[in-house]
Amino acid sequence: MTNIIAAAESTNILRVPLDELIIGTVAFLLVFFALAKFAFPAIGKTLDARADAIEGGLKRADESQAEAQALLEQYRSQLADARVEAASIRTQAQAEKTAMIEQAKSEAAAAAATVTERAQAQMAAERAQAVSSLRRDVSELALTLAGKVVGESLSDDARARAAVDRFISELENEAAK
């Protein structure tokens, strides 16, 4: 056991052999230069392209968002204009409706007045015809009655008819008073 301890004391386990250090360093430098020459530029280009794509995407997203906001404001403005126009159309339609109703009422009133006037004129004409017919009938009855009282026919005498007509007119005048 003393041999093992003595052998362990003479060799330092933490000491790196010089030949391995040189070979490791040369291998590291070869790999580093190969990576720096071939891999790192490609990785750098890829990272730059990704950064540009991300920045461009963010820029495009900001532009798209600004454009969407502008369109939203434009649509809101158009919607407000459409609402104002719809309100004015409703107001105009209401005014036209009121005017049409008033016109229809006035036309109906005029038509009713015309119908009433015609009816009154027809009633007046029928009344005048009835009065004339009644006068004729009354005068014929009066002449017939007078003829029976006198015993002669008085229907041919124009003077008798004139007297009967005058008598009936006087009666009408007294009734009108």
Describe the structure.
- With 177 residues, this protein is an all-alpha fold.
- The chain is built from 3 helices and no strands.
- The model has no long low-confidence stretch (mean pLDDT 85).
Features:
177 residues, mainly alpha, 3 helices, 91% helix
The proportion of residues forming helix, as a percent range, comes to over 70%
What fraction of residues sit in β-strands? Answer: under 5%
User: Helices and strands, in N-to-C order?
Assistant: HHH
* Biggest sheet architecture: none
Low-pLDDT windows of residues: none
Oligomeric assembly: single chain
Total beta strands: 0
Rounded average pLDDT: 85
Radius of gyration: 65 Å
N→C terminal distance: 174 Å
Topology:
Elements: H1 2-10, H2 18-150, H3 158-176
Helix pairs in contact: 2-3
How would you concisely characterize the structure shown here?
The protein has 177 residues and is mainly alpha-helical.
